[in-house]
TrEMBL record:
This is RimJ/RimL family protein N-acetyltransferase. Pfam families: Acetyltransf_3. PROSITE patterns: GNAT. Residues 27-168 form the N-acetyltransferase domain. One of its GO terms (molecular function) is protein-N-terminal-alanine acetyltransferase activity. PANTHER family: RIBOSOMAL N-ACETYLTRANSFERASE YDAF-RELATED, RIBOSOMAL-PROTEIN-SERINE ACETYLTRANSFERASE. GO terms for cellular component: cytoplasm.
Amino acid sequence: MRVIPMTMEACLKQLEPADAEELFWLTDVNRAYLRQWLPWLDIVREVKDTAQFIALTIDQHKRRQGTHYGIWYKGRLAGTLGVHSIDWNNRKTSIGYWLGEQFQGKGLMTQAVAAYLDHLVFGEWNLERVAIQAATGNVKSRAIPERLGFQLEGVLRSNEFLYDHFVDHAVYSMLAAEWRGRRSAGMSRSGI
């Protein structure tokens, strides 16, 4: 199990089977909050569904298609962060993330994405490009790539079906040279 430090109180820890109960609990207590922007909540009905998701992420890691991490804050699981898959031919990926409502407003996700980019995407994996997509109305999710200096590339219209309607997605990207330039210029891990 790999751990990536973020702050004295927070870290990224690779998801493992023992996390299923706590991750399900976090999903379940935040179900109404997360439902506005995440399309998969109806298929996560019990701990075994979360355990299957974690098993898929472990398999994804074994196949060199990325890694999913839990975001831990003061010893509690606060959310998750991971890649959808890796296109090794073009050295690119896209990432997704979510945070429980009770953990919002602490800068955790901005710090988590920065640490993930440092250690894995532009570090260990040596990828050229990473993208983040968020529904245009999801101001909190869009704030993460904006704080970190990602470029807004455009909007994909009716890109995702959320239960009973389609939403547009804003598409952001960061290139390896841009990220390294921002980091060497002294950008703090929080993006500020």
